[in-house]
Amino acid sequence: MTNPPAVLGNLKSLLDDEKTTLNKNIASHLPENSKKLNP
């Protein structure tokens, strides 16, 4: 890997934030499944 660890850490943070946002959006559209997505 040529990327500095700090850059990789920032990318991981952004991906984690995106995943959280997607999970919340999915849960809001599928209330019956929200407990499965966000236990």
Overview features:
39 residues; mainly alpha; 2 helices; rod-shaped
Give an overview in words.
The chain is rod-shaped, with a radius of gyration of 14 Å. Helices cover 74% and strands 0% of the residues. The chain has 2 helices and no strands. It has 39 residues and is an all-alpha fold. The model has no long low-confidence stretch (mean pLDDT 81).
Helix content: over 70%
**So how many helices?**
2
- Note poorly predicted spans: none
Characterize the overall form: rod-shaped
Distance between the termini: 35 Å
| Overall average residue pLDDT | 81
Major sheet details:
none
User: What is the helix/strand order?
Assistant: HH
Strand content: under 5%
Instruction: Tell how many strands the DSSP assignment holds.
Output: 0
Structural class: mainly alpha
Rounded Rg? 14 Å
Question: What's the arrangement of secondary structure elements?
Answer:
Layout: H1 5-29, H2 34-37
In short:
This protein is mainly alpha-helical. Helix content is 74%, strand content 0%. The chain has helices at residues 5-29, 34-37.
